[in-house]
Write a structure and sequence with these properties.
It contains eight helices and no strands. By secondary structure, it is mainly α. It has two domains: about 45 residues, no CATH class; about 70 residues, no CATH class. The longest helix has 17 residues. The chain is globular, with a radius of gyration of 18 Å.
C-alpha cells in the first residue's frame, strides 16, 4: 500500500487476470452492480451479507482535509502546461466538481467516494503519464 498498490492475493493468477481483462463490461457488471460477475460466482457459497454488501471506501476519503488536498493538487495540474490533465479533462467541469462536490449525488460508478476520489484519480493519472513518459498526440 505504501507504493500505491492494492494487492488482491486470491486474484493474482495470471489466467484470472487475463480472463477479467478480456471480459466484456456487460458480463463484469452482471445485475447492474460493480463486481457483478464475482458476486454471482460466489452466490450460494458465501452469505448474502457478503455477496450483496455495498463497497466501503477507506475512511480518509470523507475527511475534508483529504478533499482540499486533492482539489489543490488538481488545480495545480490544471495550471501546469506540462500536465496531461488539462488536455484530458474539461477545466470547467473539473472546477465545478471542486466548487460543488456535493452535486455528484450518486456514487461515481463503483465508487462511494464521489468527488474526492475523482480528483485523486486525476492526480494519479498525471503521475502515471509523467512516470512512464506517456505523450498524447
Amino acid at each position: 500500500m505504501y507504493s500505491g498498490l492494492e494487492v488482491r492475493v486470491p486474484f493474482c493468477d495470471p489466467r484470472i487476470i487475463d480472463l477479467a481483462f478480456n471480459m466484456p463490461w456487460r458480463i463484469k457488471t452482471v445485475g447492474g452492480r460493480e463486481k457483478g460477475i464475482l458476486r454471482a460466482a460466489f452466490r450460494g457459497l458465501l452469505p448474502e451479507s457478503i455477496t450483496d454488501r455495498k463497497k466501503s471506501p477507506y475512511p480518509k476519503t470523507y475527511d475534508p482535509v483529504y478533499f482540499r488536498l486533492c482539489a489543490s493538487g488538481v488545480l495545480r495540474l490544471l495550471e501546469d502546461n506540462t500536465s496531461v490533465i488539462s488536455a484530458l479533462f474539461d477545466k470547467d467541469a473539473v472546477l465545478d466538481i471542486i466548487e460543488s462536490p456535493d452535486k455528484i449525488s450518486s456514487p461515481w460508478y463503483g465508487q462511494l467516494m464521489r468527488a474526492p476520489q475523482i480528483l485523486a484519480y486525476m492526480i494519479q493519472a498525471d503521475h502515471w503519464f509523467r512516470t512512464f513518459d506517456i505523450k498524447i498526440v
